[in-house]
Amino acid sequence: MPKYLVILLCGGLMMNSAFADDELIQRVEKSRAVVKEFMGQLKSELQTAMKAGGPLNAIDICNKRAPEIANQLSEKYAWDIARTSLKTRNLLNAPDTWEVKVLEAFEQRKANGEAVRPMAYYEVIETAGKKHFRFMKAIPTGKVCMNCHGIELSSEVTARIKTLYPEDKAVGYVPGEIRGAFTISQPW
To answer: pTM score, two decimals?
Structure first.
């Protein structure tokens, strides 16, 4: 991060004051809306799957539909939209260097007592000579997440996860922890 950026904490969202202008605020608001759209669609499909067939059905939603939803939204908005975590289930969702730093900062913010649900961060960065607006919104681990991401999983769930994700590290969570984050990158 360039040294000239000043970091401010404002309502749970860290802001780079050097870039705090109307366009930036509009991008933050739009990013929050897109995350809400992603989260709403995924949550709805997961709830339907859980009611229809329990956690095994939900695993299929995360395996197939979550990447499809991310791709549909990426095409719709012409942005890169995804989910990531420090403990990935799907290696295709592994965080890049910037995302690792933000996820680690989220963990520190949580350790300092900040609530996970509203936690977000944005920054304008330069990569390969091009500026990008980056946004991340923390995903809190909910009670229902324990079926597939908790400490004690059923043998059926464990077997299905190992089949789909042999390198899975996304287990051992308790409610309230940071499960990962929605991540957005837009050309600046």
So the answer is: 0.87
